[in-house]
């Protein structure tokens, strides 16, 4: 009898143990379900006690969920601004449409943002500083997209001496070398490690890692600059025939050297054209009245600013054709009329001679 009672107690204990296990599983499932409901309910389920019964409320910390804080991406605001007009945009002294005009931005001109206020932007474009309405400006990605399309891509040398090669490759012939901080015009960037640049009027290739790329876009004009330009244009129209310009040997060499730097790889016609542009500037009231000051004027001829011109003068390695072109330009020959600007031919309107467009 005692043995039967003991066996019965063992069976009952076993049954109770199984029941406890089932209850634990049910509780765990309910707890898991509540946990999932909490996540589905979001923050409201945590802070609103009506969402769940207080007995079911589960407190969940960020550590338990193993959540990483989301770092906000820091983006540098672009300071580039581009004119978004078909012709001309007035720039004013103050940020309102009644303020005095200080100059003009033209189609495809750009500048740097100085300040923004009440739907107006204070900008600098060349020598022009003033306010323009945001309604006629582009900012951010839109401005950069337009600048890439209409501007000139530039590259600034960030190494002591950079080899310019005839083809993209370390085994290619070296056309020349350009120094630190020298700015070149970039024609295109290939998918490889090489960049094609304009070098003495020819295509040259340099390693991309040694160039800091940027853009150069057209600048606006102050009212004084507009008056000077218009006066120069009126004066140029009076020229029927260019007279001979007498210079000493050093000035002849200087003119030949700038022709060499800008168009040494061009045809003879292209070399004469560059010399004629220099002489047209000398004759114009908008520029200095002598060859030296025209060539070394700030922001005009890249070889003069970078030191490349001085290197060529010091070496004395100037093509004979460049000397001949300089003499023709000094004698009054001009195959570009009274034009005073040129740039690498990128499809812009103007007189195309070789790889340059004159305007």
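^ structure tokens above, recovered residues below v
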């Amino acid at each position: 009898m005692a043995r039967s009672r003991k066996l019965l107690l063992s069976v009952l204990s076993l049954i109770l143990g199984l029941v406890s296990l089932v209850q634990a599983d049910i509780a765990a499932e309910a707890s898991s379900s509540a946990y999932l409901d909490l996540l589905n309910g979001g923050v409201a389920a945590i802070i609103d006690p009506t969402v769940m019964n207080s007995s079911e409320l589960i407190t969940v910390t960020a550590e338990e969920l193993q959540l990483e804080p989301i770092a906000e991406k820091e983006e540098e605001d672009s300071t580039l601004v581009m004119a978004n007009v078909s012709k001309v945009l007035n720039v004013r002294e103050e940020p309102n449409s009644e303020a005095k005009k200080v100059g003009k931005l033209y189609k495809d001109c750009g500048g740097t943002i100085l300040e923004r206020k009440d739907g107006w932007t204070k900008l600098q474009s060349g020598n022009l500083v003033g306010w323009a309405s945001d309604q006629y400006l582009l900012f951010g990605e839109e401005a950069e997209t337009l600048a890439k399309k209409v501007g000139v891509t530039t590259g600034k040398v960030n190494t002591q001496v950079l080899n310019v090669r005839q083809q993209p490759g370390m085994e290619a012939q070296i056309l020349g070398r350009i120094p630190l901080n020298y700015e070149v015009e970039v024609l295109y960037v290939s998918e490889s490690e090489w960049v094609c640049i304009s070098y003495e009027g020819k295509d040259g290739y340099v390693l991309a890692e040694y160039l800091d790329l940027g853009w150069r876009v057209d600048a606006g004009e102050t009212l004084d600059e507009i008056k000077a330009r218009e006066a120069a244009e009126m004066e140029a129209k009076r020229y029927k025939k260019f007279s001979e310009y007498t210079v000493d040997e050093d000035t002849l060499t200087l003119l030949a050297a700038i022709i060499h730097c800008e168009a040494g790889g061009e045809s003879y016609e292209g070399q004469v054209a560059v010399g004629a542009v220099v002489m047209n500037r000398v004759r114009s009231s908008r520029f200095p009245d002598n060859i030296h000051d025209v060539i070394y004027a700030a922001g005009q001829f890249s070889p003069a600013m970078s030191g490349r011109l001085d290197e060529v003068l010091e070496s004395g390695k100037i093509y004979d054709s460049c000397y001949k072109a300089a003499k023709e330009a000094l004698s009054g020959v001009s195959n570009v009329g009274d034009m005073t600007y040129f740039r690498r031919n990128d499809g812009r309107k103007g007189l195309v001679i070789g790889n340059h467009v004159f305007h």
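Confidence is low (pLDDT under 50) at residues 26-75.
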